[in-house]
Amino acid sequence: MTADLPGAGEQILLVGLGNPGPRYAGNRHNVGFMVLDELAARVGGRFKAHKAGAEVLEGRLAGHRVVLVKPRSFMNLSGGPVAGTAKFYKAGPDGVVVVHDELDLPFGALKLKLGGGDNGHNGLRSISKSLGTKDYYRVRFGIGRPPGRMDPADFVLKDFSTVERKELPFEVDRCADAVEALVGEGLTAAQNRFHAP
Question: Could you describe the subunit structure of this protein (predicted)?
């Protein structure tokens, strides 16, 4: 078994970050939810409300048991539902994979890593605090930088541009492929396949 495999064969939590409700559904900040919806289509089944404050879907992906998790809290409070769900399913931090938007990557670029800082991302900050560690996997989906002097906080709550929306389904699909590779093949193999040169 690959040493850099999430969860080391135990339960794996695949967490998508976003804000709940239709008002935010198309926002850049919600790309984590979009990727989780694609993964849910691959796993088969429907998300169900969980007492930890998240929508969950149990299934198999790349030959491993996984739990797909979409926190029902707002982004900056994601940590509580993530930690609660991890505790319920007995998943350690190394079994948690968080899919989130990333300002410092161009649109559609992917970066996979284990641990690191939150880079100003309130969802990651909340998760690190609630888990008591930064040592969990991250799949970063590039959304680019805001134009001109637009506040990044406003930019992430705007929908993708018309041009980006045409490419978005393909990029979301590719990000889901990257998550599947991470689960099935490990971090190094997934990085080699999906990181831009």
Answer: Monomer.
